[in-house]
Input
Amino acid sequence: GEEVAQTPKHLVRGEGQKAKLYCAPIKGHSYVFWYQQVLKNEFKFLISFQNENVFDETGMPKERFSAKCLPNSPCSLEIQATKLEDSAVYFCASSLEQGPSYEQYFGPGTRLTVT
Amino acid sequence: KQEVTQIPAALSVPEGENLVLNCSFTDSAIYNLQWFRQDPGKGLTSLLLIQSSQREQTSGRLNASLDKSSGRSTLYIAASQPGDSATYLCAVWRGSQGNLIFGKGTKLSVKP
Output
């Protein structure tokens, strides 16, 4: 598609439950990025993929967060055993290639509320 | 460690006014800088991308400048309109990995 699609729009989970978020990048884009936006507009980079391969995972909390981008499927971000501090908006972005000439196009985000 | 700061945090102006939003970054070795707009409850819309070798980019009423040596970028909005009300974020492209480091944004309100 011509836009980055993210589902669901909203997700509510009780503390300790699992949460799974999905992202379909723009068709033809090779790179996918996940960001977390918490209160006060603070964006944090989580992980990026080049096609189905992890490109950079320096921002990922290793213990409970995992992500995948499999061929012919939406990318996913999964949080096992959610905590209150995971409440945030999770944005996915995609770019045609990796490099400073290439804009990142963002999806509408998934708002995760952990109660 | 790269840090991106945006001043002011909020700005309210009357319709028709020209305005400037500021973005500063601590490490001048950036590859590019991107300005975004975020409407409440929405995603990010890319406004302008400035390569490190460029000094400015223009799109309609928007003009973004980049001064790497001083670690600053400005977004100039001409003849502001109520529809320009949104949060404006700047982000720099980090190193070879390509992920963006964001400022906390400037919340702009344009009053009719």
Remarks:
- Chain A has a mean pLDDT of 93.
- Chain A touches chain B at residues 4, 31, 33, 35, 40-43, 45, 48, 55-56, 58-59, 91, 93, 95, 98-101, 103-109 (CB under 8 Å).
